[in-house]
Amino acid sequence: MKFTITTIPGDGIGPEITAEAVKVLDAVAAKYGHEFEYHEALMGGVAIDETGNPLPDETLEVAKSSDAVLLGAIGGPKWDTTDPEGVRPEQGLLGIRKALELFANLRPVQVFDALIDSSTLKPDVIRGVDILVVRELTGGLYFGARARENDRAYDTMDYHVYEIERIVRKAFELARGRRKIVHSIDKANVLESSRLWREVTVGIAPDYPDVHLEHMLVDNAAMQIIRHPEQFDVMVTENMFGDILSDEASMLSGSLGMLSSASLGAGHLALYEPSHGSAPKHAGLDRANPIATILSAALMVRYSFELEAEAKAIEGAVEQVLSEGFRTKDIEQEGTTVVGTARMGDLIAERV
Ligand code: IPM
Ligand code: MG
Fold this sequence. Notes:
This protein is an alpha/beta fold and about 350 residues long. The chain has helices at about 15-30, 45-50, 55-65, 90-100, 125, 160-175, 190-205, 220-225, 240-250, 290-305, 310-325, 340-350, and strands at about 1-10, 35-40, 70-75, 105-110, 130-135, 145-150, 150-155, 180-185, 210-215, 235, 260-265, 270, 325, 335-340. Bound molecules: 3-isopropylmalic acid and magnesium ion (MG).
């Protein structure tokens, strides 16, 4: 089958890790007889430098005309500013999420057996962990009313019923294909938007009688993730809580460099990106971990192209390379072989 993919390498380590994911996708295409056509587009800091706009119209057009979008990472100190009128790379990322209405961000947290000792947590705590964080991505604090006025500034956590409904339904549906437990994470003891979130969730639950629903306050959830992570199957939460909890949960798998993500929308088009940032300190040094991006490409193949065997081939290749003892610097362990970004991509592509 033929698919067109918009690639947005972005800033920092973005171009390096995107190249490795493309390498692995090409191996999949060759093995299974598919054709992947890539269109590269600008976003983030490079887009600001070249066009003045972190999300050029052309990028959105190219993305909309393709079957899926693969993103590296955006941002860097060069473009950091606290000026309320300033142009920032992140506006590109938030802009594309909003423009494509990608409201459901899926961040799977798995513990690879080979990496069980590279987490900062004890093996007994993380063994068998398999969590899917379902983060609301187009509402809440990220998009609510905000302003800077003299010596005051504010952001607003704003949710409509329909926004809560669609993300919570997504979580219930995804739980059906897993262990059928949903933890809805909120701060209903303090926030009005969380009380609405809880009401809507309780209202939806009867439609999924086969799925067990638990509510948990976000501060408790942050603690439970490192205390007793195997209790979680699907965790659904609003945008900002999901941003924070998914970084925290990534450490269960040993490194933020392992955490993939899929951003799905109301329509057919979806965006795939690692959950980590552009790591400017490591840019151009061939030492970034490309696995989160490669695993994001596997999610693309699964969700957007509906090629399950191909997705499993990528995931299996990652597992194999890790169990053969190859590591990037961030997941280095005694007795393993440290390789660079490109070599890690080669190894995974070869195993595919
Ligand atoms: C993420 C990132 C982004 C976010 C930043 C880069 C705007 O941290 O995807 O988790 O906060 O959503
Ligand atoms: Mg984040």
